Amino acid sequence: MKILFVVSEVEDLVKTGGLADVAKSLPLALRDLSHEVLIVMPYYQALATQFSAAECAPKQILYSEQTPYEFAIREIQLQGLRVLCVDYPDFFARKGLYSDDYHAYPDNAERFAFFAHAALKTAQAVNFQPDIVHCNDWHTALTPYFLHIDDSGFFNHSKSIFTIHNGAYQGTHRFVDIPYLRPHHQLAAQLDGDALNFVRMGIRYATKINTVSPNYAQELLTPLGSHHLFYEFTQRRGDVSGILNGCDYSQWDPVNDPHIIQTYDSKNFKGKAACKADLQKELTLPAEPKTPVIGMVCRLTEQKGFGFILPMLDKLMQHKVQLAIVGTGDPDICRYLHDMAQRFPQKLAFHQDFSVRKAHMIEAGSDFFLMPSLFEPCGLNQMYSLAFATLPIVRAVGGLKDTVVDVAEDPQAATGFVFEQPNDQALLACVQRALLFYHEFPEKFALIQQRAMQTRFTWQAAAKEYEKLYLKALG
Ligand SMILES: Nc1ncnc2c1ncn2[C@@H]1O[C@H](COP(=O)(O)OP(=O)(O)O[C@H]2O[C@H](CO)[C@@H](O)[C@H](O)[C@H]2O)[C@@H](O)[C@H]1O
Asked: Which domain of life is it from (predicted)?
């Protein structure tokens, strides 16, 4: 099949979160199944600085009423895959992808409405006639609509997939603030008050809708888990499915990881102890081999459970424990964590940083990985933790429920510690249970670590599921 993969960020090129991991790994895995994949993404300033990519097609123009939007198409290679970038400097030559610091650009709707359309024009410009147009998250959720209204004939046989990596970000904007869409009067019927919701458009116009774990797909079909799109999801119930993300073991495997001080495998954890010492040194925590280290790497948002983490920190600090957090995001959460790190310098280290090296150091050097999300479409870090024998402490939600088995629930298959209720008492009780297990049952703990390391969620398996979904879409 010919697959046009439309996405706003790709690992190794630009990344703000897990979407980028998928946008690299899935196209590569599909290519390995002999499909022809073309990635289209915006040409951000960060790309221009790193690659200064050459133009690979004539300039293109899209019109909105009389206004021309002229853009260039530039090509980058990603492990032999073609990545075409939509170069429209007014929209994309900026410091951030979606925001400067924490403030979203006010014209994000305009930027990504244009990009969603320009991606199709790009495919046409290089004569790539896709069987499948695979769109990802709200940034590209209008592409199925543009495909639907396209009258060039070029896409007559193309079907679309809309993958939801995070249903909470929907791209809801006042229609009058999206000049690019002004000629699309028919969209008036789709507005919620005066606002257009991009994700709702994706759900409505895509041939098939999927998300990144089977459990989150089920949650989207409930009033509580649908992010207020219950009606839209249930209308398309028969076309909604979940495919679990994979883990890229070529990057996330302690057997062979250039970011950590010493490699290790499931037969010998000496290297892991060295990684723990190195992490403690890096974060200026006391060098205490027997104190359990709980690590976290994430975007600092409500989604990741800070609503329950922050209220229980004082109590957690009464235990013999070290907490190592690397993340960027919500200024209020950052402030709180900085304060806690000042109050408990021996026990809590917080680096407000986006650092691949530190992410790997935390995965390798921690005993536990904390991911008590409010909701979690799939979650990648708990998979990385398993590969590093760092036992995840997670809430039973979304993809976390699909990937971590609780010690008490099924001792023979256990890989971590799981709790249910979204509140600080339940989280604290689960962390205490994990700490107790670590101290009381070191041998069992080591066995669970070995099992965790042997667990595999491969992109090959995920790609085969996508292949089936594409075939269904093609009828
Ligand atoms: N400060 C930091 N420094 C270095 N690296 C950092 C970092 N903060 C985050 N990262 C990295 O970004 C990625 C985060 O991936 P996740 O899947 O855990 O969450 P995210 O919510 O971004 O993704 C969304 O999309 C993915 C992909 O579908 C879903 O798995 C997920 O549930 C959904 O919320 C990981 O590779 C992590 O290491």
From this structure: Bacteria
